[in-house]
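My current task is to audit a protein record that another person submitted. Please read both lines and tell me whether the tokens look consistent with the sequence. Do not assume that whoever made the record got everything right. I have pasted the whole thing underneath without changing anything:

===
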Amino acid sequence: MSRSAVIHVIEPGMFTTVQDLGRPGWTQFGVPRGGAADALSLRIGNRLVGNEDGAAGLELTLVGGAFEFTRELVVALTGGDVEARVEGSGRQRVVPMWAAFEVRSGERLVTGPVRSGTRTYVCVRRGVQAPMRLGSRSTHPAASFGGHEGRALRRGDALEIGEGVRSRERHGAAAAEAVQVSQFARDVLARRELRAVGGAHMRLFEPSTVEAFWGATFEVSLNTDRTGVRLTGRIGAGACAS
């Protein structure tokens, strides 16, 4: 393990990666934007701990993990709802979602499986450090670059935080703003409905097909990933859409 590492991976969960807000502007070269699948939750987590919105955090998918800290840090959990606790010094305490809390050196953050939603975010003050690749620290697993060695985290991995990254102080108006934004996010994420707007390719379809699309009901497919949301349903007279 690196002596300068601050976060040690005890249990990585099913698929935990380092993610920020992605790398826009490279799709013409075959590189998707990527980044956090739930960018809103990552942004809010960063605000809660005093980071800039685009700081990198950990994205946990479906199954929780355990992470040990070697120094005192401010942490926040956002996104998919999990039960979480901090263990250490012969005691443990339950920690909330959508709020900042402190962990001490030697303590572990342990999260359970996601109870609602799909992805949970662990944000730490100053952000998770990783090499910049095409303007982002996000993991791109399909191409094996970005994040921590271009892959999901494994047991025994060690992560550093961004010592040189500018963080905002969480006092007064900034702290109050973070609390208000987190409450707004919880309300929005509880709605279970996605809104849509027409894109650049809408003109490729017949007007009748577009009208039928807007009048149909769809469900989010399990094949959805950070590249996009795949929908399943029917348009018009029995035609399948996916």
Notes: The longest strand covers residues 73-81. DSSP finds three helices and 14 strands in the chain. The mean pLDDT is 87. Residues 194-241 form one domain.
